[in-house]
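Consider a protein example.
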Amino acid sequence: MDETALYLAPAEYIDSDHPAIRDFAATATRGAVTPTDRAVALYRAVRELYYAVEDLSDLASFRASGVLAAGQGYCVGKAAVLAAACRASGIPARIAFADVTNHLTSPRLRAAMGTDTFVWHGYTELLLEGRWLKASPTFNSSLCKKLDVAPLEFDGSGDALLQAYDSGGRRFMRYLVHHGNFHDVPAKFLSAEMLRRYPGLDRQRVAIEADAAARA
């Protein structure tokens, strides 16, 4: 299988053949003519799903259709939705991972994790005009407003990785280590590894937006 065909194929967690994913992609890209137009529309639609840390012992939190049904998810789940919706729209896509620091996380999440370093942060890579571009649809616009950072935009011409600084020039996110890209979400590994690294997150669901509002 060539690379383009591989990254158009559905997978267990990037389930681009799921009817809900296909409907979501069709609705989001209505009126979009080019692959770049479709990619930008899909990025914005996925970005606006609420960002929340789900129960990481529940593998549905890593599956694109499960995140879409919940209407919210954390970085890996949202990246899976974007990859699945792109594949459903004829755009090759894959998921990639990096360790990052988040200096403006909510007090509740920081307490549960015991650190501001997030391992295995997930983002999406899209193939547009022969180039693999990185896009991170993690933080929805209303959450960004509460965190005092501009929403991350993606225009299909370059990478859109998480914001390094907030609107006041304070450090926001920093990429530490890149772990490469994958055809599908390694969900069982991620669930075990995240709970090993952050035992305080066991079976927790953290509504980041509510925490950010309380902090503000």
Notes: The domain at 3-215 is CATH 3.10.620.30 (C8orf32 fold). Residues 75-88 form the longest helix (14 residues). Strands lie at 50-51, 72-73, 93-102, 117-128, 131-135, 173-182.
